[in-house]
Amino acid sequence: MLRRLLLAAAASAALTVTLSTAALAAPGSLMIYTSTPNEAMTALVAEFNKAHPEVKVEFFRSGTTEVLNKLQAEFAAGAPQPDVVFIADAVAMQQLKDDNRLLAYTDAPLAGFPDGFADPDKMFFGTKLIPTGIAWNTKSGVPAPTSWKDLLGASAKDQVIMASPLYSGAAVIHVGTVAAQSGLGWDYLDKLAANGAVAGQGNGTVMDAVATGQKSYGIIVDFMALNAKAKGSPVDFVYPADGVSVVTEPVAILKTADEVADAKTFVNWLLSDDGQAYMAKQGYIPGKPGVALPPGRPAASALKLMPVSNEVLSKGVDENKRKFSDAFGG
What we know:
Layout: H1 2-11, E1 30-34, H2 38-51, E2 57-61, H3 64-77, E3 84-86, H4 90-98, E4 128-137, E5 160-162, H5 169-179, H6 185-194, E6 198-199, H7 203-211, E7 217-221, H8 222-230, E8 235-238, E9 245-247, E10 251-253, H9 260-271, H10 273-281, E11 285-286, H11 310-328
Parallel strand pairs: 1-2, 1-3, 5-6, 5-7
Antiparallel strand pairs: 3-10, 4-7, 4-8, 4-9, 4-11
Helix pairs in contact: 4-11, 5-6, 5-11, 9-10
């Protein structure tokens, strides 16, 4: 705790990004950096505190790319603030692992989870499955999509919005996955841009545009569209027949964490039956088989995944971001 206070003071002039007051945890608080949407994270922390009221939690929330940029600036200043990182994709976590930033948690409760859901060295752990597919405005009069290539047709001209990999971790995975597919690739993404598709920022921007009718189609994570539909928004969602990309929203403890015991308590709860059931209640597909699914969600085993390795995704991040910026702007 003392280390955090002293380093935070010393680093204030050195950081190249502005630290919000919410990102400076009070002594004794568990500090989490996350890309989970603010409302969902607030609710999740409240549920966690029902089981563990003794753990004080604060969090900083932004898109995965901004979270990582902020964290890298703090590393450079010698003042990393978070105890826990809880972000969209495993590729970003792998980068933190490769930089020797993560703490191995060998006793994490992984019983019941499928092989490969956790890092083999137990440095980060998937918590859920978040596929990216296609949402559309049901009042717009456009046909319901069935495949990614439907977004290249006349009905989708100037009517598609997608999250940007320059901001969103899920979009990093989606663009990298599509780029790696022999039937899609950058040829498809370039055609999508030529058909008038635009990039928003994160998935929330995409959801707002589709729900309000500014755009007819959105490339978006499933839970946002299906949760909005359940609340009466004029949207629907499809998992394209040609496959989906998926992020697992992994969680990890930093080597520099002050509150290691509380961090492990938080990880334990996320991986527990209660934590998995609550994430399903929030509209996510739980990572643990056997936990009841949210309405309208397929079981993990029923998802058709577009094949791609983490190695390919990791190696292609910078090049895919450059190409995306050239094609879509931003």
